Amino acid sequence: MTKATSAESPDHRFTSRSPRLRRRRWPWLLLLSAGLGVGLWAQVPGGSGAAAPLLEPSDKEKREPDVVFVPTPQPVVEKMLELAEIKPGDIVYDLGCGDGRIVVTAAKKYGVKAYGFDIDPKRVAESLANVKSNKVEHLVTIKQADIFKLDLREATVVTLYLLPELNVRLMPQLEKLKPGSRIVSHDFDMRGAKPVLVHRMKVSSRGATAEDLGYGSDREHTIYKWVVPWERDTAAAANN
Ligand SMILES: C[S@@+](CC[C@H](N)C(=O)[O-])C[C@H]1O[C@@H](n2cnc3c(N)ncnc32)[C@H](O)[C@@H]1O
To answer: Which of 117, 174, 176, 236 is the most exposed place for a label (fewest CB within 10 A)?
Structure first.
């Protein structure tokens, strides 16, 4: 069951600064940043070696990812896109696109153009294979690129599943998005930017596929949404 909570509602006590949320998300933070999720790579179908027709060689980046690949469970992907209120003409960017599930879902469900960027060539190959098998090549572009070197201004919706400090590092780029653009982040906040909405949901393992679960367990997920220009959260920025 899902439950939407707005910044104004009592449930907004579960903000990034809430001890309860911090406690809940630490194991995931540790897994993501320490690379213990490496075993999950094997879960992803396709592997490397898929054709890369959409990759532009000039965009190739050769350095380690800032965070390991952990897929967003499919029900959370769907909710992120729903909360982003995607409409015709929107352009979706997924920064660190992993296996491409977010951009493929955006194209298939909403018929919008979507761009996935990942620094890891294996992820790029998986995304391209995903795009191809879902027949959305006309809508989805996958590029191998370092997200911190991208000009994001063409995007009207940006999706993130990175780490809190990486979200903060992206702020100078995200600030340049057109007014009204939406940013949705799985599990991690963006210190100093007040979300307009914080949504928590549990992905039940009952009857769920491996893709549904992403991480292989039924835990609670949090989705943060901001609309550009976002309201500054000076208290949060000062406390951290
Ligand atoms: C936690 S996964 C999220 C994947 C996908 N967005 C999702 O939600 O299912 C983070 C992804 O970011 C990529 N990544 C990490 N650092 C990056 C960087 N500097 N530039 C581009 N991609 C990066 C990783 O390779 C990984 O695929």
So the answer is: 176
Torsion of CA 80, 84, 89, 91, to 10 degrees: -60
Between 216 and 179, name the one with better pLDDT. 179
Q: Which of 33, 55, 70 has most ligand 1 atoms within 8 Å of CB, for mutation?
A: 70
Identify which of 33, 99, 123, 144 to mutate to test ligand 1's pocket (most ligand atoms within 8 A of the CB). Answer: 123
List, in order, residues 6 or more apart from 6 with CB less than 8 Å away. 12, 196, 197, 198
pLDDT digits (tens, 9 = 90+) for 151-176: 999 999 999 999 999 999 999 999 99
pTM over 0.90: no
User: Which CATH number do you get for residue 125?
Assistant: 3.40.50.150
65 Cβ closer than 6 Å to some ligand 1 atom = yes
Expressed as residue numbers, the domain containing 19 is 2-239
Q: What is residue 223's three-state secondary structure?
A: strand
